[in-house]
Design brief:
heterodimer; A: three-stranded antiparallel sheet; 3 helices; 44% helix; B: Aspartate Aminotransferase, domain 2; seven-stranded mixed sheet; 17 strands
Chain lengths: 82, 411
């Protein structure tokens, strides 16, 4: 079972799968609701990691005053280790 | 003479490239970069004389012992301690503050005074002990400046029983960058026989710290913010306080003899606090970091950082009401860092974009001061550039320009 940042990365993928395109703050808020076992400040590092691994796409949104993240490719929810 | 070009040459990480382009490192309040002599000292320990200090009679062990204790001597001299026995090696500031708390009787009669801007390392333990009924905790409201007035301290201390309180404060805040008047506060505390524990995590790397002039009783330091390796710090304490302090971890090297049934003969400070195998390489490299800072001169480091702060604050002022930053407005009154409120833009996103598009590395979020951010309704956190001796004014200007471009893009 994934632990630490790997678990958080799996959670981010799951959230984007379920929520669709989301800002960093929306992802952090939802991760906190689900009871992430890390400080909320760790979540952006996980997002940046996934971005570096080309698992995510990003768009800048003036409306949301935020980056909007989405999955680069479809993710099989059942295979996410969270 | 402070030669920034030469100083930068000492820090190999500054010359790392990301996507073929140079980087700007401004996360030194979290972790400083390491100069070559520190890296060399660590490498030497692991390649030339790896051993335990003080345990075996062979050459490697003797060399380790010599350098381990030399690092303690250097540290003591650097902070103007009366004696090197006043320096106790720990993992970091957090462990040192926890060790300092072992001075308490924990019988429910003692009061701890902290402030709202305290780092988690200097408040979580107190909250935990209060919840367990072991202490009474007073958290003074530091407001947006992060600094309480002397009158506020006086009033809080007046309500404490003489000799039954401990005041635990950061000399420099890791979010407001404000500096407290340590000797003045120490005078108030000592007039009522209290103990003053100083969190010097953000001051030791940047200012000349003289424990005798400051007149605190205990002081906690992390070396990883001061050009030293990670995983090593120290607690300095007045010797008579260290004699009263209970060890937090017990085991080998803390005793001179043990007999059954139940007879232990404890060693005096600092040995009684340094149980088990120590981070010898870390301590030796910490000594190299102190040599390095000493060779540059802490006054020179501070003056350079004031110049960087001025450039940063002037740049931030240009943003008008699009942003605000915490703490004092004069560069001379603060450390070279700023916790910036981006007024509705999430600081994490800006930090990600600074990394992704501009190769600028800094920190975002609560910076381990969750309570302070919540108290100011900064629930998204703040963006925190933090500069050190190896940064240039040009780098600060590049950061300001990049920040402006991101804010314009997102708003």
């Amino acid at each position: 079972m994934a632990k630490g940042i790997e678990k958080t990365k799996q959670l981010i993928l799951l959230l984007l799968h379920d929520m669709g395109p989301s800002s960093t703050e929306e992802l952090i808020a939802e991760a906190e609701t689900l009871g992430i076992a890390e400080c909320r400040d760790r979540v952006p590092g996980a997002i940046a990691d996934l971005n570096g691994e080309r698992m995510l796409t990003k768009q800048l949104s003036k409306e949301k005053k935020a980056i909007v993240w989405d999955l680069s490719d479809k993710v099989d929810r059942s295979k996410l280790d969270f | 003479m402070f030669d920034i070009k030469n100083i930068r040459e000492d820090f190999p990480a500054l010359f790392e490239l990301k996507d073929g382009r140079p980087i700007i490192y401004c996360d030194s309040a979290c972790m400083s970069l390491k100069p070559k002599p520190v890296i060399q000292a660590l490498t030497d320990y692991y390649t030339k004389f790896t051993a335990c200090a003080g345990r075996s009679p062979h050459m490697f062990s003797r060399e380790t012992t010599k350098r381990y204790e030399a690092a303690r001597e250097k540290t003591a001299k650097f902070i103007n301690a009366k004696n090197s026995s006043e320096v106790v090696w720990t993992k970091n500031t957090t462990e040192a503050l926890n060790l300092g708390s072992m001075i308490l009787k924990l019988d429910g009669t003692e009061t701890i005074i902290a402030t709202s801007e305290s780092h988690n390392s200097n408040i979580v333990k107190w909250m935990f002990l209060e919840n367990a009924g072991k202490i009474k905790l007073k958290v003074l409201d530091a407001g947006e400046t992060g600094i309480c007035s002397l009158d506020t301290f006086s009033a809080a201390i007046d309500e404490c029983q003489p000799g039954k309180f401990l005041v635990s404060l950061a000399q420099v805040s890791n979010v407001t960058a404000g500096m407290i008047d340590v000797p003045a506060i120490a005078k108030i505390i000592h007039e009522k026989e209290g103990i003053f524990q100083l969190d010097a995590a953000q001051s030791f790397p940047h200012l000349s710290v003289d424990v005798q002039k400051l007149d605190v009783d205990l002081m906690a330091v992390s070396m990883h913010k001061a050009c030293g390796p990670s995983g090593i710090g120290f607690l300095w304490g007045k010797y008579h306080i260290l004699e009263r302090l209970h060890p937090m971890i017990l085991g080998g090297e803390t005793v001179s003899d043990v007999k059954i049934p139940n007879t232990i003969k404890m060693l005096p400070p600092p040995a009684k606090f340094e149980a088990g195998l120590q981070n010898y390489g870390g301590v030796i490299a910490a000594g190299a970091a102190i040599d390095y800072l000493d060779s540059i001169g802490m006054d020179n480091v501070h003056q350079h950082e004031v110049r960087l702060s001025k450039v940063m604050l002037e740049g931030l002022e240009e943003f008008g009401d699009k942003i605000s930053y915490l703490g004092p407005t004069r560069a001379e009154d603060r450390a070279a860092l700023a916790a910036i409120d981006l007024k509705g833009i999430n600081p994490h996103e800006v930090a990600i974009l600074l990394d992704d598009m501009y190769n600028i590395f800094l920190r975002s979020g609560y910076h381990c001061t969750h309570a302070f951010h919540h108290s100011l309704d900064l629930d998204q956190g703040t963006l925190r550039p933090s500069w050190y001796l190896y940064n240039t004014e040009e780098e600060v200007k590049v950061f300001i320009e990049a920040l402006g471009e991101i804010i314009d893009t997102l708003s």
